[in-house]
Amino acid sequence: MNVIVNRGATDVSKLKIGAIEDEKPVTMTIKPASAIYHDLRVYAEVLEQEGGHTIDLNSLVAPMLARFIATDRAFRRARRQIQNKDG
Predict the structure, then answer these.
(1) Fewest CB atoms within 10 A around its CB: which of 10, 32, 60, 84?
(2) So what's the pLDDT on residue 35?
(3) What are phi and psi of 10, to 5 degrees?
(4) Are 20 and 1 in contact (CB under 8 A)?
(5) Could you give the C-alpha distances from 52 to 19, 62, 78, in angstroms and in order?
(6) Interval 12-65: pLDDT, tens
(7) Does residue 76 contact residue 84 with C-beta atoms inside 8 Å?
(8) Would you call 41 helix, strand, or coil by DSSP?
């Protein structure tokens, strides 16, 4: 399911997760704290309002993790060091 956020002039257009791409998933079970679960539900509601599509909460976790990892500079440096050691 692809969801594109309306890129209008609203504050919502500044969300870090703008599109949910269809990819072959790997099954994983997570147990978020209730506050995180609540925020995830609200995030999905905002995307639904902007994109006009129903969002499955499970489909938000992977792009959020990907965005977090992609923007973590310390992780990128550490990953490069590990990759350089391996070959």
Answers:
(1) 84
(2) 97
(3) -80, 160
(4) yes
(5) 12, 21, 39
(6) 457 777 667 777 878 889 999 999 999 999 999 998 998 888 888 888 888 899
(7) no
(8) helix
The first and second tokens of residue 87, run together, are 């070959």
pTM check: above 0.70: no
Structure tokens at 58: 């499970």
Q: What does the pLDDT read at residue 7?
A: 38
> Are 23 and 62 within 8 A, CB to CB?
yes
**11 is written with which tokens?**
């504050």
pLDDT of 41 reads 94
Identity at 74, one-letter amino acid code = A
Sign of CA dihedral 77, 64, 52, 13: negative
Q: Which residue has 């995830």 as its token pair?
A: 40
Beta bridge partners, 19, equal 4
C-beta separation of 41 from 60 below 8 A = no
The Cα-based distances of 11 to 4, 5, 7 in angstroms read 15, 11, 10
